[in-house]
Amino acid sequence: MTGLPHYAAMLATAGALPSDDLGWAYEVKFDGIRAIGYIDDKLRLVSRNDKNITAAWPEIAQIAPADPRFVVDGEIVAFSADGRSSFEALQPRMHQRNPAKIRALAEHIPVTYMIFDLLHIGDRSLIDLPYRQRRELLEQLGLDGPHWHVPPRLHGTGTELLAESKKLGLEGIVCKRLDSPYLPGRRSPLWTKVKNVLDQEVVIVGWRPGTGRRAGHIGSLLMAVHDSSGKLTYIGNVGTGFTQGILDELRTKLQPLQRKTPTVDADVRDAVWLEPRVVGEVSFAEWTGDGRLRHPSWRGFRPDKAPRDVRRE
């Protein structure tokens, strides 16, 4: 595959619903893995942190070949029995690179590439066109296959759609200005995500040993994010949301990253400090006044996110 330019993903800003529905489009916020798709004679999928992840998702490969060639933006999702996208369901597949195991997992945990933007077609970049026009061109491609789909447009006011998404147990909605260009690699309020559930990407900077039934295992993970100046800042620890399998995986992944000194300012006793290289995601109730997460719960690893990009939502 040659000739298709590289595009970094445009990122949404967390915020509130627009004050006026005029000029905005609304989409479901899917709970999956963001990926830019380059479709020519073959498919190439690139994660948000610029890693080639094509091999992990072989069922999407049938979207190629394409003439004319094109570049799209979307989310790789796994759907639960009730039709909701499930980030937890993706976890067994996110790290797997063994072809035989990938094929076996694909049979039990199939995914769908939900495509929501068209960035390039043929020899023409479309990123300077308004979202409204890119969406129309995307729909004309007719991308509806066994493992890829263009989600339908949502109709109604932002308030109505957010309420309906909460009723259905969805993560939330994304609000996009109809006149917005595509801004590669930039986080912009032209795209605003409004969530029903609070979640936060975190850098794992250490752990505390477990007690009781967790003796000899990880008890809780120490979390950090980068502040506005780029400094890694401690935001508390998470000790719930783990299965025994997750705890075993955490120990295997984190043990080689041990270091003697902390990378954050934190008054934590008995901590095992780590190189800040692993990113995860937690859900939580709220931010406290001193910048900690209240009642966090582990959701899973985020290998598609680079530690340097983790900021407070």
Describe this structure in words.
- It is a single chain.
- With 313 residues, the chain is of the alpha+beta class.
- It folds into 2 domains: 11-195, DNA ligase/mRNA capping enzyme (D-amino Acid Aminotransferase, Chain A, domain 1, 2-Layer Sandwich), CATH 3.30.470; 199-309, Beta Barrel (OB fold (Dihydrolipoamide Acetyltransferase, E2P)), CATH 2.40.50.140.
- It contains 5 helices and 19 strands.
- Strands 3, 4, 5, 6, 7, 8 and 9 form a 7-stranded mixed sheet that branches. Strands 12, 13, 14, 15, 16 and 19 form a 6-stranded antiparallel sheet that branches.
- A hairpin with a 2-residue loop joins strand 6 (112-121) and strand 7.
- The longest helix has 11 residues, at 244-254.
- Name given to the CATH homologous superfamily of the largest domain: DNA ligase/mRNA capping enzyme
Low-confidence stretches: none
Write down how many β-strands occur, each being a DSSP E stretch of 2 or more residues.
19
Helix content: 10-25%
Brief digest:
The chain contains 5 helices and 19 strands. It is an alpha+beta fold and 313 residues long.
Entry keywords:
single chain; 313 residues; alpha+beta; D-amino Acid Aminotransferase, Chain A, domain 1; OB fold (Dihydrolipoamide Acetyltransferase, E2P); 2 domains; seven-stranded mixed beta sheet; six-stranded antiparallel beta sheet; 5 helices
